[in-house]
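== Protein entry: sequence and backbone fold ==
=== Local backbone shapes as whole numbers ===
==== Amino acids and backbone structure tokens ====
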Amino acid sequence: MSLKIHQDHARFRQIVKGRVRKELRKFISKGELFGREGGKTVSIPVPRIDIPRFRFGDRQMGGVGQGEGDVGDPLSQSDAEDGQGQAGEQEGQHVLEIEVTIEELAEILGEELELPNLDDKGKQRVVSTKDRFVGIKNVGPESLRHFKRTYRQALRRQIASGTYNPNRPVIVPVREDRRYRSWRTEEIKEANAVIIYMMDVSGSMGEEQKEIVRIESFWIDAWLTTQYKGLDTRFIIHDAVAREVDRETFFHTRESGGTMISSAYKVCSELIETEYPPADWNIYTFHFSDGDNWSADDTKQSLEILEQHIIPVSNMFGYGQVHSPYGSGQFIRDVKSRFNEDEKVITSEIPDRDGIMASIKDFLGKGK
């Protein structure tokens, strides 16, 4: 019975995953999921799924194939459309709230977009330890006593001493017979990565544009978290001046001002240089903007910082440009022109919320 319940639960979870996958684009484009990020799970509304079963009707209703009607007529027909009609006693349609973890959603996202597993780079950062049983000792705690080895040793001793009676095979271990598992503590060096997000919060970036950036950043972060155990995430916002902020500020800030993209790249470069040695870290840098920069001189300086300090040490540099009615959109053309042959540089244009999934595919689909 217990096995049947587990099988049914596993099957139900597969049905739920299929429903979530079908509606994934809609879930991804909504901002309330990352707004509720404080928990491990989010509630996903799906239509109720009933297991098919026979239902016995009133005996006075007649048998199969009896009654009025022609071949091809539906077996039953509602008198009222959905949302119409008077109050009644019949069962209506229901929506079920399913608890799904962010990790499960990220896994579904990876499967749907066919995102590849990423290659590990750094192995130098020790993030945990693990105890491994490596042998047998004569001393140790009783909780680690090896009963089979202890019994074998006691049997061997009694046979050697002539006290073993095959007709009454009672084995009584003494202190010298006891054997215990021995262990060794090993350092686990995990692959580690850092994601540095940079977002333009200038006046030309409206709230909708910022929301698109936040949603896409959240799902990129969620999927990369499934790939690396030692994952650091850093956030930089900029208008004419850049500064590093915490996650809360990044996902909720409402600032405005002019735009100097080079200010963000300078902060990013200094962060990598001081805290993330490229030999030990997988470095992912993402910059989101509407493509509007203060001057051609600042654009030139920005491209030089990218070329000399950020791109060479990064697994990839992703530039996502959000469509804005107020931005010029020029910067993505400058990036493409300068780094057209560099495989580490990936650009993506995001016209609206419906373009988020395609943009994530642009950035992560090649498995840098």
About this structure: The first strand starts at residue 41 and ends at 47. The chain has three domains: 1-51+93-114, 126-187, 192-364.
